[in-house]
Amino acid sequence: MAVGTLALFYPVFLPMSAAALAYAGHRALYVDWRMVLTHFFTGPGRTSRILLVFFLALNWKSLPLAWTVRIFHSFIYHVLRRPKTLPQRALFHHSVTSSRTSLLETDYNIHKSNSTYFADLDVSRSHLVTHLLGPGMPIIGDNAKNQRVRDKDGNVVQGSFGIGLGAVFCSFRKEIGPLQGYEMWSRILSWDRKWLYIVTHFVVKGKVRPTGWDGRRMGPTRDKIQKVDGNNGEEAVDFSKYVVATAVSKYVFKLGRFTVHPALVVEAAGLLPERPGEGWKGGETGTGTPEDLGDLDDEGEWDWKRVEAERRRGLQYAEHFAALDGTNSLFDGGEDGAIGNFPLG
User: Fold this and answer.
1) What is the pLDDT of residue 237?
2) Which of 112, 286, 313, 307 is nearest to 199 (CA)?
3) How far apart, in whole angstroms, are the C-alpha atoms of residue 266 and residue 203?
4) How far is Cα 191 from Cα 34, in angstroms, rounded to an integer?
5) N or C, where is the chain less crowded by C-beta within 10 Å?
6) Of the given ranges (12-16, 70-74, 121-125, 154-158), which has the lowest mean pLDDT?
7) b/e per residue, 265-282, with b = 16+ CB within 10 A?
8) pTM for this model (two decimals)
């Protein structure tokens, strides 16, 4: 998702899309669809046309502009269908998006090409971020009025709100076959003073169900797994055996060229409990002073301590991912030569 996309979505793309749909519907009223369909299925060359439609239906997500449709569908869907409020525990919950490998995504090894995972990640992350943080984005975007974001001198920051994708890492464990269904389970992993980290698991379709939904029911659920308790408890299920790939992405929020602290966006969405002391931006790390969180009750209230404990737990993985930014310094411009310059790259 490029910086500025969301800044243009509401005032530009949404009205244009509505106008285009209205015009298309108006024109469709003047078409004799019965005659068109009769000719399509019975006229000369019908076999080729039917096979072409069948092929396009199997590969729709690989067609031109299909990626754009999938992305903007996620925006529009959550603008229209998102609950007005979400419980604070939803901050680290998964967003589940289903998909299927098209024939055009299949490589010469007869499985989903590794490069196509990143287009799916765009869609999955868009669903997650729009659903969770959507209410906070207009608040941060209208910063002149709401004054949530200030620079180091205390001045109110001006500029258009946008989101930038900083990096993506993907680890592949198993293959996904042609036309095989799968699910993308995305959630917020952690954040620091600049980046919001998101983890996405590609999961075998239909093998895993959540214990509940943060709103209206959106599919079957399962019972909670009992933790191991000596010889009496039930052994927890290893859900990782259904994971075929795992990706970590990092987003940056911007007002113009100014980097917005991720905690401000999460807080504007109503998903951060109040934190004592310097709040969520204090301390040397810029993410709050490192108080001792003490013993936490897994079933207790989602207070600031539980949120911070989850953020720290995810940051243990995110920090290793962030450290890879340093590999930029390894580029020496071919100081000792290069292998060659090859065509059709």
Assistant:
1) 80
2) 313
3) 27
4) 56
5) C
6) 12-16
7) bbbbbbbbbebeeebbee
8) 0.87
